[in-house]
Design brief:
Mean pLDDT: 88
Structural class: mainly beta
Family: Belongs to the SAP18 family.
Number of helices: 1
Number of strands: 4
Shape: globular
Pfam families: SAP18
GO molecular function: transcription corepressor activity
Organism: Brassica carinata
InterPro entries: SAP18, SAP18_sf
Distance between the termini: 14 Å
Radius of gyration: 13 Å
Largest sheet: 4 strands, mixed
Length: about 110
């Protein structure tokens, strides 16, 4: 999912089948890094292509009681000449699990 101006809330994910409407399906591997995911988001989001755009990544997953948690995991800048420490972090490094949602906020 991607959202301009901030992350979706955990309540946005509370009902299965009624997730946020701005969903984008991305098929990737756990060794993909946040820079590669940034480039994929830029392909589908005009806001992410702005030269000064900042993308914030969060994992959304259920806790042991079935309530969703939104956990921010990293940030990138739209253009790679503005390198960020999180660019090279992979989904595996950040403990992404199959079935989790990846929520991307674009600022």
């Amino acid at each position: 999912m991607h959202c301009t101006g901030g992350h979706h809330t955990k309540e946005d994910y509370a009902v299965r089948g009624k997730e946020p409407k701005d969903e984008v399906q991305i098929y990737t591997w756990k060794d993909a890094n946040l820079r590669e995911l940034t480039d994929l988001v830029k392909e589908v989001s005009v806001a992410a292509r702005r030269r000064d755009a900042r993308l914030s990544f969060a994992f959304v997953y259920p806790d042991k009681n079935g309530r969703f948690i939104v956990r921010q995991v990293g940030q990138t800048m739209s253009y790679p000449n503005r390198k960020q420490p999180d660019d090279s972090k992979t989904l595996a490094d950040l403990h992404f699990e199959i079935g989790d949602y990846l929520d991307v906020a674009i600022y």
